[in-house]
Amino acid sequence: MSTVLGVSCADGVVLAGDRVVASGGHVRSRSRRHVFDFGRVGFGVVGADVDGFADRLASEIRTYRTERGDLDIEPFTRMASDLATEFDAAVLVVARDGDGRPALRAVSPDGGVTADDVAAFGSGASVALGALEAGHDPDATLDEAAALARDALSAAAERDAGTGSEYDSYRLSA
């Protein structure tokens, strides 16, 4: 599958995700992005049709911006939630809240939404989440949060064949 994770800290939010695509116990690709950067918003996604989900959400983002301007966390989360159920995808979204602070939301494949300081989805999620929870510091800098995200993905890659060692990341600073 793959693994995506998010970490909130005093300086902002970091998303990270590896590039592996695995199914049926075999690695199919080591070059698919799972983390996407749209400037003031970003998302990480795992599921069967990552490209289809990413294309549709990118289209929704462009339409929203054209019609209404900047996108904050609430409408962005609703968009991702609606598409998650359609694509059976698990998604982490990052955008600014109503007060302008970076926010992280986890959207499950059934469309359920949770807000937490750390989150992970995918085949290595349990290992990554354990590493995130053990090392999370809400007062950390963005660089420290990025290092924690990298270390959590590395731990997942060591223990999960569906998680790779190469990754992409997205940062939204406070």
Topology of this protein?
Layout: E1 3-9, E2 12-18, E3 21-23, E4 26-29, E5 35-38, E6 41-46, H1 50-68, H2 73-87, E7 90-96, E8 102-107, E9 113-115, E10 118-122, H3 125-135, H4 142-159, E11 167-173
Antiparallel strand pairs: 1-2, 1-10, 2-11, 3-4, 5-6, 6-7, 7-8, 8-9
Helix pairs in contact: 1-2, 3-4
Descriptive notes:
The protein has one domain (3-173): Glutamine Phosphoribosylpyrophosphate, subunit 1, domain 1, CATH 3.60.20.10. The protein has helices spanning 50-68, 73-87, 125-135, 142-159; strands at 3-9, 12-18, 21-23, 26-29, 35-38, 41-46, 90-96, 102-107, 113-115, 118-122, 167-173. A five-stranded antiparallel β-sheet has the order 5-6-7-8-9, covered by helices on one side. A four-stranded antiparallel β-sheet has the order 10-1-2-11, covered by helices on one side. A two-stranded antiparallel ribbon has the order 3-4. Helix 1 runs antiparallel to helix 2 (73-87) and helix 3 (125-135) packs antiparallel against helix 4. The protein is built from four helices and eleven strands; from the N terminus they run ββββββααββββααβ. The protein starts with a strand and ends with a strand. The model has no long low-confidence stretch (mean pLDDT 94). A hairpin with a 2-residue loop joins strand 1 and strand 2. The relative contact order is 0.27. With 174 residues, it is α+β, with helices and mostly antiparallel strands. The longest helix has 19 residues, at 50-68. InterPro entries: Ntn_hydrolases_N, Proteasome_sua/b, Proteasome_suB-type. One of its GO terms (molecular function) is endopeptidase activity. This is 20S proteasome subunit A/B. Keywords: Cytoplasm, Hydrolase, Protease, Proteasome. It holds the Pfam family Proteasome.
